[in-house]
Structures are given as C-alpha cells and as structure tokens.
Design a protein that fits this description.
Layout (H helix, E strand, L loop, with lengths): L1 E4 L5 E5 L2 E4 L2 E4 L4 H8 L7 E7 L4 E7 L6 E7 L1 E8 L10 E7 L5 E4 L3 E7 L3 E7 L8 E3 L22 H4 L8
Antiparallel strand pairs: 1-2, 2-10, 3-4, 5-12, 6-11, 6-13, 7-10, 7-12, 8-9, 8-11
Amino acid sequence: MRLETTDPSEVLLLTPQVHADERGDVVECFRADRFAAATGWRGHWAQVNESRSRQGVLRGIHFQHGGQQGKLVRAVRGRIWDVAVDLRPGSPTFGRWTAHELSEHNRQQLWIGPGFGHGFLALSDCTVIYQLTTPYVPDQEGAIRWDDPTLAIDWPLQGREPILSERDRQAGLLSIQ
C-alpha cells in the first residue's frame, strides 16, 4: 500500500496494491502494522458505518466536539469527492482543507486524523464505508456549512445545487463554531 501525505499532513491518501488475474482481484484494504507506522495510531476500530447516497448528495462538514475521532473512509461503490478540514484549535493549518476523489475503481482510502471535519459529495450513486477510532456520540456532533466562505471548498458541483439534509442546511459557519 502506498501512503501519500496531503496538506494538512495529518490526512493521508492510501492507495492499495491490486493483485489481479483472469479470476478477479484481491486488495489488502488495511494492515495494522503498516497503518500504525504511517499514522502513529495503534488502536482498534470502535465503529464501522456504511452510508449510501444518490448522485448529488453532499454530506458534511461533520465532526465530533472534542476532536478525538479519526476515520478511514473509502467508496466501495461509485465515486465521491471526499473532503477533510483541519478543525484543531491552535493548529498552523486550522481551516485548511484537502480533497480527493475516492472510487470503487481507484480503491483509494482517506485517513482523516482526529480533530478534522469530514464531508463528501456523491459524484455518482455510491456506498461509503467509514471506520471510526471512537464511537459516534450524537450529543457531541457538530457541523459546518459546506459552502462556508472562510473555507472556500472547491466542490465539483458543475453548476448544480447539492442535495442536503436539513441538518446540513442549518449548519453554522466555521467562524462561529
């Protein structure tokens, strides 16, 4: 597996090696020793979630207050534009974001370290798997508007309005979080 740092460097893009022949293929999606060496995280997955979205759905930017949750995200069906935003108070990269297309074809995953917000745009109908380092706690959840002008995330919407949940429509701006 190839690991590439992004900016901010606490977000990693993981590209697996695919072993293919006429029968199909095998991909190593996760290996604890290599992951720990790259990220320093040596815990266990506390929760695994799966979400399905129609093309045009935008989810996020979501986070857990307290900044303790890391996540490993992958699209197992379809394509997404996956975004991580540094929300760590005092971080030199606070408010900086990075984005990558994850798909069933490139099989890439995004490691989003603790203290980051996360969101994605469904570029096609998709299924996304999230592996979480800590359980989801509803009363600790927070959200920042997807179109926060301070963040100025370059969503590939191609002139269309995203499909949003009521929660995401009502999300606040980063400056008031």
